[in-house]
Structure formats: C-alpha cells, structure tokens
Amino acid sequence: MKRLLDLEGAINLRELGGYPTTTGKKVKYQKLLRSGDISNLTPKTLKFLKKYGLKYVVDFRSMNEQEMWPDVQSDFYKVYPDPVYPLKGNGEKLTNVLKQNSDSYLGMIYQSVVLDQHAQQSYALLFQLLLENTEPDKSVLFHCAAGKDRTGVGAILILKALQVDTETIVQDYLLTNLMYENSSDVEKILNDDSKGNKIRNKMNMTKADVESITSVFEAIEHYYGTFDNYLNSALGVDAKALQALRSIYLE
Question: Could you tell me which residue ranges the Tyrosine specific protein phosphatases domain spans (predicted)?
Fold first, then answer.
C-alpha cells in the first residue's frame, strides 16, 4: 500500500495505515487519511476515494477558509466543519508557564493548541467521529490547508492513542516537508524500504522541528499526568472508548 496518495486536486494526502504499535499490532490500512486542502478534488479522485471507502471528512480550517475554499461535496461522504482556530487563548497562558527546553516556536504553538479549550473541542469531535467509524472498509479523512499543523496535531493525537511509538509519529509528521519537494522522488523514497536511511537523513535536514512533537507530549504530561488522562479529561475519550478505538483501527 502506498503512503502517499498522489491524486489529482489533492494536497499532501497520506495514508496512516501500516504504522506499527508498541504492542505488536499495526494501524489498519484504508481507515485513516490525513490531508491538506481538498477543495479541488477531481471526478477521477472522487471515484478513487469512493472505492477507498471514504465516509467522514473533518475540516479543521477556520470558517473563513471553509467559505473561501469549500471542500468538494459528494454523496458518499459527509463533511464536518471543525475549526481549530481561533483559540480561546487559555492554552497559550498554560504554555507560557511551562519550562521551555528549547526555542521551538512550532512546539509552543502546538502546546497552545493541545491545551486550548476550543481546540480540544475540535479534536474531541474528531475522536467522536473516529469512534463512529465502525463499519468495515470505511475511512475518515481529516485535513486543514497544508495538512501540516492543525492536521499534524490531529495525527499526533491519533497515533499516540493507538500506541504508535514517538519516533514513528515524528517521522509521519516530517513527511509533510518531503511532500512539498519533488513528489516523484518522494514517492520512490517512501515506497522503497531499502532507502529507509535516505529518508531519515533527508528528514533531519528539513526545516520541521522534531522537538515540536515531543513538546506536545511534555505539555500534556505536565498538566494531565498521562496521555490517557488527557484523552479522558480533555477529549472525552475514556478507557472504554480508547479500547474501542484501538479495536477499530488496529490489527
């Protein structure tokens, strides 16, 4: 299965299946998609996504972005407007009192997002829809404009909840930087296991901030003790729901 879905009119559209977990399982294919803007999807791409099983689309963009560049509508999936911004601001206040171990600007933004009450409601809706996606061979797509920051945080939270290790989560995040380079080269790298070292080296040379991912977990653990407690307290995903989530998306 390809990780990069290079489809007409799609931006940074990627498969999240196949990632291993710390428990020996792996994320199912054709259940989770992350993406950038999907306002220009072509009939050919829609045909592919229908066959793929797309059923839910979660749009993290602001209402202004959604009005300016509306998602392509279709009869086989439903679009859920779920803007992460504007933040209430409480997350930024909490971030300011955290001891910063680096000058990670993105890390501070991501910390603000995961701690902000409004953004938490947005990601809570994402998890609610993920839990509704119990039908076999049906998938959820979540996206923003570039598929990097708001979408990136969503992917971080999902993969962590599914017990994917931090290194793999960071690598998935960093793939966005490769996506905006020569896509044919990227596809060759992504789909050739022998080039694993090459992709890691290339990631290390990108502008993306690896610490921005680990700082998310640091902020969550600082205020919530554990990631599971964050899921429960901030996103409304209790132990029973978490077990259900893993049964839906892992194999």
Answer: 121-171
